[in-house]
Design a protein that fits this description.
Layout lengths: L5 H10 L3 E4 L8 H12 L7 E4 L8 E4 L6 H8 L6 H10 L5 E2 L8 E4 L22 E9 L6 E10 L4 E4 L6 H10 L5 E7 L3 H7 L9 H9 L4 E4 L6 E3 L4 E7 L5 E3 L13 E13 L4 E3 L9 H21 L5 E6 L3 H4 L2 E6 L6 H12 L4 E5 L8 H11 L6 E8 L12 E8 L16 H13 L9 H15 L9 H7 L3
Parallel strand pairs: 1-2, 3-15, 4-10, 17-18, 18-20
Antiparallel strand pairs: 2-3, 5-14, 6-7, 6-9, 7-8, 8-14, 9-12, 10-11, 12-14, 13-14, 16-17, 19-20
Helix pairs in contact: 4-8, 6-7
The protein binds flavin mononucleotide.
The site of flavin mononucleotide has 19 residues, from strand 7, helix 5 and helix 8.
């Protein structure tokens, strides 16, 4: 489904019961974030929803949060796909990006505030960790451009408001936004930047994925949306911005200057410390009439940023294993909702085809991602169902032989467990049925009797339920395994199971 803009998407979110409007007046300096925090702290994932604050103190703008990342169901709605198709969608669009379409004008330019009139207090930027964050931060889709190739990049970066027209830009040298800044800075030139707030959901989802350098997020967003993203040239910077964005802040990154960014509530769950950052001067703010300010709620997990980064990271990891490393029997990857969707526990679902295959895939993933603990399971396991995972951890992992510890990994700088050199470790658990071992049958009745009993259940006027996919998966997988010798790998279980389309 191609949502034209954020407003079009909000309508669908509301129709699906996943958006709540707040009519009472709220204070953006604490109340917006603290109320939004309860979505994650007070509700189980399947009952979470996005929030739209319609009466925000000091502004006529509405403020939305958790709009694309309240839960996996909401993320799927933003993608316009059922939750079980999230990976299929990402794997398809990464191979078939769609270029944006440049248009002459767009709603984002309905109102233009020129440089001399810019005052950032005009925007209702919430303070996300009240009494701990010293300054509010705009976290949105930050668009930069490589000076020489002209290729644009969009990353979701934190922009801390330092004065009425100055903003620090939280990127480090590993980030493409920073590399684009450097492509100008080495020539002593200011780099153009545009921060798009409140775009069609595909743009938000594409820009929170760590795509390979040279892959323009707008092309991926177009493929996610199902039609080209309409873009319009900025009013004061040579950057193409989403034409249907609610608000865009344009500016020029100072080629040499640094400014202190105050510590901010970080996505891994702890407060960050102050640091010197590159910064930009705002050259214009443009917006639609009656704009909606959209701010992601991040900080302590679970949060919106954990959800959207986690979903993108697990899909990217899946894509890389299959397309870059030829691991065709990997069927799914799931990441737990901790540590910003980055340092979490990843579970890989696959069919090992030879002894040691599961460990190999676990080690590969440990090398190419920040994931800290990696469990590899067979395709008979529902990797998003904690009880199934506990079952295989406790039954199929022999700590003496199936655990690999990788030490001396250069780890993410915010990992609280890393040592003074910046090194950390990783843990890999092989929770697959091992080739060469013999295992007995599953102690559930066979599928045909369970399915017959489902009919009896319905006849008996008992409470209704849908058969969970994991039950069918588990029954089918074990039945197939017993049909083949040696747990099926060499006799073709891998391909058979894949043909079952799990
Ligand atoms: C809500 C949210 C906030 C983020 N904040 C930052 C940030 O301040 N700095 C940063 O480098 N990455 C941040 N990220 C992660 C990046 O946006 C993400 O990894 C992105 O893909 C980086 O793109 P790049 O590799 O093109 O620079 C954030 C992600 C989300 C979802």
């Amino acid at each position: 489904m191609a949502y034209k803009d954020l407003r079009d998407y909000l309508r669908v979110l509301e129709e699906n019961g996943k958006l709540r409007r707040v009519k009472r007046q709220v204070d953006p300096s604490w109340e917006v974030s603290c109320m939004a925090r309860w979505i994650y702290q007070g509700f189980p994932e399947d009952r979470r929803f996005g929030l739209l604050f319609e009466n925000v103190k000091g502004t006529s703008m509405s403020v939305g949060t958790a709009l694309v990342g309240a839960s996996r169901d909401v993320y799927a709605l933003a993608l316009g796909t059922p939750p079980e198709k999230i990976h299929d969608t990402w794997l398809r669009v990464l191979s078939q990006p769609l270029a944006p379409k440049t248009v002459a004008s767009g709603p984002v330019h309905e109102v233009v505030i020129p440089k001399e009139k810019v005052d950032l207090s005009y925007l209702p930027v919430p303070t996300w960790t009240p009494e701990k964050d010293k300054r509010p931060c705009i976290t949105a889709c930050c668009i930069t451009r490589d000076r020489d190739s002209g290729v644009q990049n969009i990353g979701t970066y934190r922009c801390q408001v330092q004065s009425k027209n100055q903003i620090t830009f939280n990127t480090n040298p590993g980030r493409q936004g920073y590399q684009n800044y450097e492509s100008y800075a080495v020539h002593g030139e200011p780099a153009p930047v545009a921060v798009a707030i409140g775009c069609e959901p595909a743009v938000h989802l594409a820009t929170s994925a760590a795509l390979p350098k040279g892959m323009d997020e707008l092309h991926v967003a177009g493929a996610l949306k199902g039609e080209p993203i309409e873009v319009v040239r900025g009013k004061t910077v040579d950057i193409l911005v989403p034409a249907h964005a609610e608000i865009v802040v344009e500016g020029l990154l100072h080629p040499t200057g640094r400014m202190v960014e105050d510590g901010f509530g970080e996505f891994l769950g702890y407060m960050g410390t102050s640091a010197d950052r590159i910064w930009f001067e705002v050259t214009a703010i443009t917006h639609r009439r009656d704009p909606i300010y959209y701010g992601y709620i991040s900080q302590c997990p679970p949060s919106e940023s954990t959800m959207i980064q986690g979903q993108a990271n697990e899909c990217m990891a899946h894509w890389q294993l299959v397309t870059h490393f030829g691991e065709q029997t990997v069927t799914d990857v799931a990441l737990t909702q901790t540590h910003g969707g980055m340092l979490g526990h990843a579970v890989v679902q696959m069919t090992p085809m030879y002894p040691g295959h599961a460990k190999r895939v676990g080690r590969l993933l440990a090398e190419i991602t920040h994931f800290k603990i990696i469990t590899v399971v067979d395709t008979g396991i529902d990797i998003r169902y904690q009880q199934h995972l506990d079952w295989v951890h406790n039954s199929l992992v022999n700590p003496a032989t199936d655990v690999t510890i990788i030490d001396d990994c250069f780890t993410f700088f915010m990992d609280p467990s890393r040592d003074e050199r910046g090194m950390g470790g990783k843990l890999i658990l092989d929770a697959t049925h091992k080739i060469g071992h013999s295992y007995t049958d599953l102690s559930l009745p066979p599928k045909h009797l369970m399915w017959k009993a489902y009919e009896s259940w319905q006849d008996a006027d008992l409470p209704a339920f849908n058969i969970p996919q994991r039950v069918e998966r588990s029954l089918d997988w074990h039945a197939k395994r017993l049909e083949c010798s040696d747990n099926g790998r060499f006799a073709g279980l891998g391909t058979t199971v894949r043909r079952l389309k799990y």
